[in-house]
Amino acid sequence: MSKLLCVGTVAFDKIETPFGKTDKILGGAATYIALSASNFDNIDIGIVSVIGEDFPQDYIDVFKDRHINIEGLKVVKGGKTFFWSGEYHNDMNTRDTLDTQLNVLENFNPVVPESYLNAEIVMLGNLHPAVQMSVIEQVNNPKLIILDTMNFWMDSELELLMKVISKVDVITINDEEARQLSGEYSLVKATRKIRDMGPDYVVIKKGEHGALLFYKDEMFFAPALPLEEVFDPTGAGDTFAGGFAGYITQSKDISFKNMKRAIIHGSNLASFCVEKFGTEKMLQLKDEELKQRLSNFESLTQFEINLT
Question: Which residues pair with 2 in a beta bridge?
Answer without folding.
Answer: 43
